[in-house]
Amino acid sequence: MQSSWPDNVGILAIELIFPSQYVDQTELEKFDGASAGKYTIGLGQSRMGFCTDREDINSLALTVVNKLLDRNKVPHSRIGRLEVGTETIIDKSKSVKSVLMQLFESHGVTDLEGIDTTNACYGGTAAVFNAINWVESSSWDGRLAIAVCGDIAVYAKGSARPTGGAGAVAILIGPDAPIVFDRGLRATHMKHAYDFYKPDLTSEYPTVDGPLSIQCYLSALDNCYQLYCKKYSKLNPCAEKVGLEQFDAVLFHSPFCKLVQKSLARIGVNDYFMANQIKRQEQFPGFEKFNNIQLEDTYFDRDVEKAFMTQYNSVFEQKTKPSLLLANQVGNMYTPSVYSGLVSWLINNDISNLVGKSVALFSYGSGFASSMYSISTTNDVEKLKTITSSLNHILPMLEQRIKVAPEEFTKILEIREQNNHKAPYEPVGSVDNLFPGTFYLKSIDDKHRRNYDCVPL
Which of the residues are catalytic? Predict the structure, then answer.
């Protein structure tokens, strides 16, 4: 039993996977009869990864956890908690975590806490928080924790379909980490709303109220950011008031990249409304016309949006855009989204630009649940390299993917739609296109029991 509170609890390693196939968003615009640039410029998306009927949430989770342990040479016996966050539900009772036990049972490991956590895209962050809480609690036994975030985001035909995607992240959490979660600096905002939900358990498709979803997202950001600022000031009474300038990077959950750009500017909007009159005049010259507007009335105010996006464009380019690589190239992964942003930021920067940094993260899940928190990277270059070097495969894998024509992409989604929850079922998708080391669905028997295999390395 540990006798002291562990120091520097955070990320020891991180693994990310995405589908081996994608559809080009420019081609999808033409296929859908959408105006040129609607998906690529309007949404900020270039490519969208997708899964055939050979992959489900179990196979994604099996793949990412297995790769995390293998790539980082972590013995299965070193893991004491395994937590899964997902909104891709294929069983109303049995957890994805219980399926992952297949990887551990053969190593004699069954003393492994944690199960699944669900609330739209926020479930992954809840899993991360649960893992951190365990390491920092009296229940901790000295072993490490893994938080798994994974989802397959698919939409019915229509304007929402290009905001899909898929992927999974596995995060190894423990003490003395190169990337530390700042203790005592979590700000959470949760409310009841029907902005995005999945009431039809026979379908993969959600019910979405687009305008309400954006308003909920931005209002959650407002509340989380303001509360974070208050908590920071309370913990650091001698420090200057917290603001956007404090962070070296700001990462967001990304339903689509354009919303993230608006969200970075939204923090600027909050800084403006929280500033006194003197500071407003210093930092926001020419913005006097917004003085009498209420913050809650600005969600769809185009003048405010345009002014602050222009004001903060260079800040976005520096602090947020590097985190959108995977969101732009793969799409919305749901629960892994904000952590794919962290991976993108890590692989998009030279190591010298990563050490000693302060990074803010905003996680949002419809319904809704949200948190803003921050992480700090070590000043030890070699220690940080243990994480970044294990991510060197990400960029090559993005280029190794296979492009699929929109016609074929649509047929594949129709197959998923027609056979969702079907049993018995033999998947028809090709295994040949999957990345080496990928677990895939082999069959479903008449009792809905799923069997998996793995593509050889």
Answer: 87, 121, 253
